[in-house]
Design a protein that fits this description.
It holds the Pfam family Rce1-like. About 75% of the residues lie in helices and about 0% in strands. By secondary structure, the chain is mostly helical.
Length: about 260
């Protein structure tokens, strides 16, 4: 299915980023709890759909095995020392990020620093308990599905001669990293660069280990970190504002008895 694979790659690398930017802008313009919950559900469905198509197009090969047999990057695939250094370094880095995020649970100064850094993305981050529960599903879905698509499928397609572009492992890693960064264009240039760096690291982990298991775990952990350092429902300005909006809707309903509290059209 070379033609279908090529069409899917074009959709992932070009069409998806172009479609995602206006969709996320709409959320940013109307970032209510209901809008975020609806967006989370849409993201979950989209991620699993992309993973399912990737698995179908890659069959009978499995996407969980990184294509380490492709030419290139022998410094990593041919050296046990380099492989363990890459995997160990990634574990250490994510461990440090996790420890710092958990520290924000008890250190108000650290928490405020994280809250300030998260300001550009607060429109998409979970505020209430229900949103936070759905965010867990989003994080797990992103960790599994994005690794299957951007590391499993793309590495094989870009690097495999005959069925793909035949760029070798190095070229496949670079293009898949760029594609992963571009799909986060809705976060702005900083988000593209940040996501590209994370995607590149996860790609190296997948290549070094020969499978996607560790990359998936690290990806999920990274996406779960906002649950520790972003907690507006517990007294921050954003949380107070959200409660204020709810009170305002109740007062408006009292002033307009013809419209019930639940009527928010």
């Amino acid at each position: 299915m070379p033609s279908l694979q090529a069409a899917f790659i074009v959709a992932l690398c070009i069409m998806l980023p172009l479609l995602e930017v206006p969709r996320w802008r709409r959320l940013k313009a109307n970032s209510t709890s209901a809008a975020r919950l609806g967006h989370y559900r849409e993201v979950i469905v989209l991620l699993w759909a992309l993973a399912a198509v990737s698995a179908w197009l890659a069959a009978p090969a499995t996407l969980f095995d990184a294509p380490g047999r492709l030419g290139g990057m022998e410094w990593l695939t041919g050296s046990a020392t380099a492989s363990w250094l890459v995997q160990g370094g990634a574990l250490l880095l994510v461990g440090m990020l996790t420890a710092q995020a958990l520290r924000s649970l008890t250190d108000e100064e650290v928490r405020q620093q994280y809250a300030l850094a998260a300001q550009p993305l607060k429109f998409m981050l979970p505020a209430g308990r229900r949103e936070r529960r759905w965010w867990i599903v989003v994080a797990i879905s992103a960790g599994v599905c994005e690794e299957l698509v951007y590391r499993g499928f793309m590495l094989a397609y870009f690097g495999q001669p005959g069925t793909g572009l035949g760029l070798g492992l190095g070229g496949a890693w670079l293009l898949s990293t760029l594609a992963f960064g571009l799909v986060h264009a809705y976060q702005g240039l900083a988000g593209v660069l940040r996501s590209g760096i994370v995607g590149g690291l996860l790609g190296l982990v997948a290549i070094a280990s020969g499978h996607l298991a560790l990359a998936i775990v690290l990806h999920v952990v990274i996406d779960l970190l906002p649950l520790a350092y972003y907690r507006p429902a517990e007294g921050s300005v954003e949380g107070v504002a959200e409660v204020g909006d709810q009170v305002g809707r109740v007062l408006d309903a009292d002033r307009n008895p013809d419209q019930g509290v639940g009527d928010t059209h």
